[in-house]
Task: structure prediction
Amino acid sequence: MKKTLLIITALMLFVGFSSGQEPIDEETLIYDGEEAVVDCDELIDDAEAEYRAGNYEEAVDLREMVAQHKDCDEGLRAKNQYLAGTIYQNKLKNIDEAIKAYQKVIDDFSGSKYVARAKRKLTTVTESAAIRDAEIARLAEEARLAEEARLAEEAAAAEEARLAEIARLAEEARLAEEARDWFWKGYNALENEEYDKAILYYEKAIELDPDDADAYYNLGTAYKNQGNYDKAIQLYEKAIELDPDDAVAYNNRAVAYYYMKEYDKAWDDVYKAQSLGYQVHPGFLKDLREASGR
Result:
């Protein structure tokens, strides 16, 4: 008996240290020579004090310590196991531990009046657990459906963007094709010296494709051939802006400047065209030299 009580004492001291709580105060132990027993009433008083102080974790640990200690009165042990369940249920809101605590009353203290109470509580907390689990499942399903909807919305948006891009490219290709049709109509009209038609066709081509340097160049040439040199120069400038290496555009602008008697500008464009590798017509160079006095 002495050996058993000493082992219990050592175990309880060890539990106190290993659980991170204060070890059992030695005043809680009653020594009889070499024998020591737990003062169950002292533990119960401590549990009630911790509970009143709002220290529910400490209170439930003390209640369970009484319930598990064989030296305590059977009725007190059942009561404290039951009270541990109520703390888990009502204060710590730990339904799973409450279920375990009430089940322990039923399993370990079959003759106690607390068994009936534990069964009623067990029914209640089991229902609560079922409601909780159902709510968790409901929220998880809601989250899953929300994520599914989000992904579907993202996929729909991506598909819409893809189709919009396909439509944009198709429209771009259609407009480019239509612009080229007008371009070649203008080219044929220019070749046939139908300058009014050429101007109309090239303006339509530029409306559909405002970045076509060749269309601006040819439109400028149509105006130049009509004697509208000022308009021609504007269009050659636009062609050069779009294609800075268009030597022919520099050459034709030089011709337009020549007819406008702006010889210095004409020479600048001649030099630029030559720097780009263009062979300026000797006859034009001769006329420009004579007109400019160079």
In short: The longest helix spans residues 114-191. The radius of gyration is 50 Å. Confidence is low (pLDDT under 50) at residues 1-36. The beta strands are 29-32, 35-38.
